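input
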Amino acid sequence: MSRVLIIGAGLTGSLCACLLRRELSDRVKIVVWEKSRGTGGRMSTSRSPSNMSCTADLGAQYITATPYYSRIHKSFYEELLLHDLLKPLEATIEGMMLKDEGSLNYVTPSGVSSIVKHYLKESGAEVCFGHHVTHVYCRGSGWEVCRKGGSPEQFDVVVLTMPVPQILQLQGDIGSLLKDSERQKLEAVSYSSRFALGLFYKAGVQISVPWAAKYVSNNPCIRYIAIDDKKRNLVSDECGPSVVVHTSVPFGLQHLEEPLEEVQPVILRELEKVMPELPEPENIKCQKWRYSQVTGSVTDCPGQITLLSKPLLVCGGDAFTHSNFDGCVESALKVFEVLKSSL
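output
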């Protein structure tokens, strides 16, 4: 049995683990390490501290399937629809840019992290949170992986799915394995940055607006607002509404190194200008997305980069394709092809 470590419990990592279990279950022991406290990466769902059933998606907001990806990723969409993890978007989103004609938009009734949790559950992987990888060393026919505050562990195969700048920050043998051309490609990857707010309300509070979400074009700070429960078509007497606010990328860049407690009041002041009628929330969560969306992906790349084939070390994620659901699926499939051919 090969011991496979997947670093990063986002969509690419979780789907990769799921594909391994479904096709190579007799050959692999799957371990997933995630540095944060929960699954999802940029597909994470936050909960109100006062009411765990009141949720908000602070990252990905909805999934757009173009006709092309609806066809080539048909089995993935069908599975998620079958399990009620995806539902067609029926609510009004003002200012939404229409993509390819015939594209379908989906929402996640249980929050966008439910997709990642589904794949992790299917994978049967040993999932470890709070595991922040610092060093990766090549040791004979395998890898020694070190993390903050823990003992080094040995693996036969390592898959890196975190944002590219975090791959480049890894200590150990990663630097020496990278060819100059590969390093240049990875260093050229660019991301947008932004902040997100989640506003949670008590049961019974009404937010009366004619839309479920809207893109804002006339504010220097705020780019997008969603009444998240309305967008996901949820009706509940047990919890109040939740509102998601995304800042513009220029605002995110301008305030990137400032502490959250200083940025949050600035966003709230701007939100009051855009929605002066918004009631006072019971709880607020502020999230910084340093690596929000890939704006410049790895060039001439087939969805992954294999840094070493024996022992195997592969990099994947949306930076190796494009920054959306189908980009992550595409990368997971490419990484899995490499794993399958060597395990």
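quick obs: The CA atoms of residues 187 and 265 lie 34 Å apart.
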